[in-house]
Design a protein that fits this description.
With 337 residues, the chain is of the alpha+beta class. The chain is built from 11 helices and 9 strands. It has helices at 16-24, 59-71, 83-104, 112-124, 130-138, 144-165, 173-182, 208-226, 231-238, 260-267, 300-329; strands at residues 48-52, 55-58, 188-189, 192-201, 249-254, 278-280, 283-293, 296-297, 333-335. The strands form 3 sheets. The chain has a 4-stranded antiparallel sheet, sandwiched between helices. The chain has a 3-stranded antiparallel sheet with strand order 2-1-9. Strands 3-8 form a two-stranded antiparallel sheet. Helix 7 (173-182) packs across helix 11 (300-329).
């Protein structure tokens, strides 16, 4: 919520809907939705935009996929002149997913029903109650049954990737070392702090009385902290930031990741110190720095595993493209958009 997210225009291959619903559980306690409820009605909603063998992809499914992808990329803007191209890319992704899902039907996936139930339970546990869970599903035109179907679909596609594609992917040690040597900038870790905060949120457009009430509450809480109150306890009880669930812990972050007033206050503190009440566009913060890390170069031994994972992921994506290309050659795919 407070980070300046690095925007990526790449599309997510699978699991977008599940990622979106899971992420929305973080803000569910405030009853908010990350995207507005889509208007899916009328004849246009049932219009077929593509066919993959015997499966039709409808306009409503395409529009839902667009909204979920945008919601998973905070800040991503699609200019009107690019929307048609974006729509085609999303449709191509839906076709890819359908081809992989149809391939999964040829495989025996052990305990698939139990896996689906476990994943749904995990998502539901992220919401304060069933009502907010159902409301969030409704915000993208789903009910519990259709969401369960989408989870089954995601798990099935992931199984195809895991069993049919990933086993053929390997990464040699020399590839990992070469990547490390050729990308020194990627392993330069700037100074970081680990901080916790309590946010007393208030709308930036709120009147003077509401602003004063929020600041007064923040000042009162800070006074309690100075007297020895437990930071995590007060954060859980009072903070309006989703981080309240972790006692206000925001983890480590570097410069340029937070809004300026917050960043300036956090980096001015020593471990264990408490900031004055800090005002930002989100409201009033009380910040406590827990730990600091100096700027350093990450060693090869420390970076090796992550580099290997990265290279393997890149190779897997390429292998998926080849795999899907073969599936598409043997399938009947009609694009009607």
């Amino acid at each position: 919520m407070y980070s300046k997210n690095t925007l990526s225009k790449s599309l997510i291959l699978i699991g977008s809907m599940l990622m979106f619903i899971s992420a929305c559980s973080l803000s569910s306690s405030k009853g908010t939705s990350a995207v507005p409820a889509p208007e899916f009605s009328g004849a246009d909603a049932n219009k077929t935009v593509a066919r993959v063998n015997d499966k039709e992809i409808t306009a409503v499914e395409l529009k839902r996929a667009e909204k979920i992808l945008i919601a998973n990329k905070p800040g991503l803007q699609i200019p009107p002149t690019m929307h048609k191209e974006f729509e085609k890319q999303v449709l191509n992704q839906e076709i890819t997913s359908e081809l992989l899902f149809q391939e999964s039907r040829k495989l025996e996936i052990k305990d698939l029903d139990k896996q689906v139930e476990a994943k749904i339970a995990q998502v539901k546990n992220g919401f304060p109650d069933s009502e907010k869970y159902v409301k969030q599903l409704g915000s993208i035109g789903l009910d519990e049954k259709t969401f369960a179907d989408s989870v089954r679909r995601d798990i099935s596609i992931a199984y195809v990737v895991k069993t049919e594609i990933a086993p053929g992917i390997s990464v040699r040690d020399e590839e990992v070392k070469k990547f490390y040597d050729q990308n020194p900038d990627k392993f330069r870790q700037e100074e970081q702090v680990r901080a916790s905060h309590i946010l007393i949120g208030v709308d930036a457009k709120a009147g003077p009385e509401a602003q004063k009430a929020a600041r007064d509450k923040a000042e009162k809480l800070r006074a309690e902290l100075v007297k020895g109150a437990a930071f995590a306890t007060l954060a859980k009880e009072n903070s309006t930031c989703p981080s309240s669930r972790q006692g206000g812990d925001l983890g480590f972050f570097g410069k340029g990741k937070m809004v300026p007033p917050f960043e300036q206050a956090a980096f001015a503190l020593k471990p264990g110190e408490l900031s004055p009440v800090v005002e930002s566009q989100f409201g009033y913060h009380i910040i406590k720095v827990v730990e600091r890390k100096k700027a350093e170069t990450i060693t090869f031994s420390a970076a090796k595993n992550k580099i290997e994972e990265y290279i393997k992921a890149q190779k897997t994506n390429l292998a998926i493209d080849v795999f899907v290309g073969e599936l598409r050659k043997n399938a009947k795919v009609e694009v009607l958009l």
